[in-house]
Amino acid sequence: MCNLFAQAHACLMAQDAAEKVLLSRITAAGFRNGDTHVAPWQQVTAIPEPGRPARPQLVNIKHLSPRKLGSSAGHAALIHSIVHIEFNAINLAWDAVYRFRDMPAAYYADWVRVADEEAYHFVLLRRHLQTLGYDYGDFPAHDGLWDMAQATQDDVLLRMAIIPRGMEARGLDVTPEIMRRLRGIGDLDAVAILEIILRDEIGHVAVGTRWFDYECRQRRVSRDELFPQLVSRYLSGGVRKPLHLDARRQAGFSEHELAWLAGGS
Fold it and tell me: N or C: fewer beta carbons within 10 Å in the chain?
């Protein structure tokens, strides 16, 4: 039998995008089938950078041009930006498996499923990008998600609060507007893909909620009090509006959390 932590590390460090996807899907299938198990493995080590291809070029987010849909390149750049998010999401899911040991078995089942679904999303979007005459790596991108993974690597409670419930939940808010824009230029294939992703991402953020709530209960701290403190500390500028309140409710946000977020976090 394969060790889940070793497999997660292999997925995380795979450099070629297609190889990362294939390893992710094989590892997830093996875990579901009982061929991969959770058992002691090597010491958790810091990962300054996960495996990634030489392209796209990573730049500061301030240096990225606005993704306008008035041209074929602008259209493709928007799709590329979402492809890049999904690529990062694969790494983040496997890092959540690899990095945090001694969690309940259900935690690993949740994050293996998330990694598998993120790999599927990446494939859907990359194929669509290719139909537009481009491929992953053809546009520059930023690395904000992994930077925050580094900042939260020492505490699973912090990771659950900031990555899925802070940064990835932002995707729930912005996806409907992106779908509206893409529908406006007739890219209905992209809209259909984003409908799948939005549905699944609600579940991914809900996984973050489940384990943030679990850690809060384990440590006997108030979730409703702690979440605003962590967001204020780690997400400069807070959470932008508008919020997709219904999606966030489905993902497990409490009314207290939503009221705080809506009130000017």
Answer: N
Helices marked H in 61-155: 72-99, 105-131, 144-151
Amino acid in position 71: S
Distance between CA atoms of residues 172 and 201, nearest Å: 7
Which class for 1: exposed (0-12), middle (13-18), buried (19 or more C-beta within 10 A)?
Answer: exposed
Secondary structure class of 3 (helix, strand, coil): strand
Can you give the pLDDT at residue 63? 63
| Phi, psi of 154, rounded to the nearest 5 degrees | -100, 0
CATH number for 2-38+71-262 (one of 2.30.29, 1.10.3470, 1.10.10, 1.20.1260): it is 1.20.1260
Query: Which token pair is 25?
Result: 């899907």
Identify residue 231 by its one-letter amino acid code: V
Residue closest to 206 by CA, chosen among 259, 165, 235: 165
Average pLDDT along the chain, 265 residues, taken 10 residues at a time: 92 97 97 87 89 91 72 94 96 97 96 98 98 96 87 96 96 96 97 98 98 98 96 87 96 97 76
d(CA 120, CA 62): 29
Q: What residue type is assigned to position 40 of the chain?
A: P
Length of the chain: 265
Beta strands in the chain (DSSP E): 2-3, 36-37
CA pair distance 104, 88, nearest whole angstrom: 25
Domain boundaries, the chain: 2-38+71-262
Q: How far is Cα 225 from Cα 257, in angstroms, rounded to an integer?
A: 9
- Which residue has 């973050």 as its token pair? 208
